[in-house]
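Support case: flavin mononucleotide complex. Customer-provided input:
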Amino acid sequence: MKDISELLGCKYPIIQGAMGVISNPEFVAAVSEAGGYGLLATAFDSDPAKLKDRVDRVKAFTEKPFGANLMAIHPKAFEFADILVEAGVKAVTTSGGSPKALVPYLKERGIKVLHVVSNVSNAVKAASAGVDAVIAEGSESGGMQGFNGASTMVLTPMVVDAVDVPVVAAGGIGDRRGYQAAFVLGAVGAQIGTAFIAAEECIAHANYKNALISASESDTRLMNVEWAQFRVVSTPVAEEMVTKGGLSKSEFSAQGASIEETWVHGDLEAGTIPAGQSTGMIKAIRPVREIIEDMVRDS
Ligand SMILES: Cc1cc2nc3c(=O)[nH]c(=O)nc-3n(C[C@H](O)[C@H](O)[C@H](O)COP(=O)(O)O)c2cc1C
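Agent response - structure generated as follows:
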């Protein structure tokens, strides 16, 4: 395989990591139009009909391939999968739990599966469950992650050595140098989250984008939520939560309810804004095509 674009059917081996409400249809389509592989998110969804609407909206904006992220532990993961099958989606990512049950279901229906892992042991388990590729996500990444994760620099080559399926690197990839490093580490593609939030087409509020532009590489925090950690920008709200030891399950659910208010409407007092350490590299809001083309250019 030349790189992961062959499996995904897109121009460049770049996946836009799913990011809740901010990976909305217009943004997913813009990424795919620019040659990447756009992904809708389903983690915070409860209604399959709403996913169908969003899939239809992406299709109204682009004929290029796109996919979605399925959370393995989500009670509606199989219903969401049916919507994606019906829409002709060719590849999805899975995360948040073992993909063992979802993999045969998706593959029997012609969908390729790339599973996100944060350690070697889960990569090996995913490969033996039959995934087509794994995404090795290092601890510098934005959003949810397990405890004691290794950085992308350590995790990627270790996962490459441990599995016989293609590996995509994720976490901390913010420019052409990080993108090229992913290939040197043995990956055949890159999944990017944080750097795309600052895209012009991204629905994230200007307050969110400007917080990313202002933040240095040291301005993110890992916040505990019982079963996981979240890497978020160090805002006053985040510092308060980290200082008190993180969030309980119910506090986390309350945060979930404020996501739209914080991420899309820009009320940074209502909740936290996830981002990875590559936020330190973001200097401007740019069209997603420019972000992608800057990454893939030869020199
Ligand atoms: C705001 C936000 C929301 C995210 N939501 C999800 C999600 O729903 N599912 C998932 O698999 N990954 C999620 N991620 C992780 C990204 O898809 C991606 O793997 C990660 O951001 C890559 O690291 P980077 O931020 O350093 O580029 C999220 C990341 C961010 C920043």
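The longest helix spans residues 48-61.

Case will auto-close in a few days if no follow-up is received.
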